[in-house]
Specification:
Layout lengths: L1 H57 L3 E3 L4 E4 L6 E10 L6 E2 L6 E5 L4 E2 L3 E4 L7 H8 L6 E7 L6 E2 L4 E7 L12 E7 L6 E6 L9 E3 L2
Parallel strand pairs: 7-8
Antiparallel strand pairs: 1-3, 2-3, 2-13, 3-10, 4-9, 5-6, 5-11, 8-10, 11-12
GO cellular component, one term: archaeal-type flagellum
Keywords: Archaeal flagellum, Membrane, Transmembrane, Transmembrane helix
Function: Flagellin is the subunit protein which polymerizes to form the filaments of archaeal flagella.
Length: 212
Amino acid sequence: MKSHNTSKSRKGTIGVETAIIMIAFVVVASVVAYVIINMGFFSAQKTKETIWRGVESASTSLELDGSIIGRADSNGNYIEFLIVPIRLSVGRTAVDLSNNSVVVSVIGSNFTITNLYKGINDTTGVTVEKIIEDLKGTNENEAWSVIYNSDGDKLLELNEKAYIIIKLDTATYQLKPYDRVTIEIRIGDGAALTVTCQMPPGFSPNEYVRLG
């Protein structure tokens, strides 16, 4: 009789042990599955971030907002000013137009000028024409920007438009009829805005001409 009870007790013990082992397997399997799923989500997120960074670095935060305009010098021999209208690209965050974050370069047929940018002219009431009037005739190579519809800061934001005004020293750097020029505007992040245009067949003194 005692032997019979001992056998039943052992069977009950074995059953409990088996159940504990099975529960342990289930718990371990759940933990492993959780880790694998999390790793999958982590990898997918990292892949998404990598793709997004690649897209950002390959695209520019700026885009043209109209035609590039050239202004001839007082003798009508060369283009002295280049005026580039820009705006914020769709879906991009505001761009700082302070002189610490922007690099403007001009590449002509037989010259290259880098680091022209001096900053944003945020003087009250300033216009493209006023900047040109202040700079014309000087022996300088420089570029300034002005923001229209600005809220008073140095950021180019949605619904704002900026002009980059580039002044060339025509005694040294000359854009003559039929010459081609490339303008590169690079900000801190993303690709540079690069545009190429050609000078018209001829121009008159102080004339504004559309370059493309």
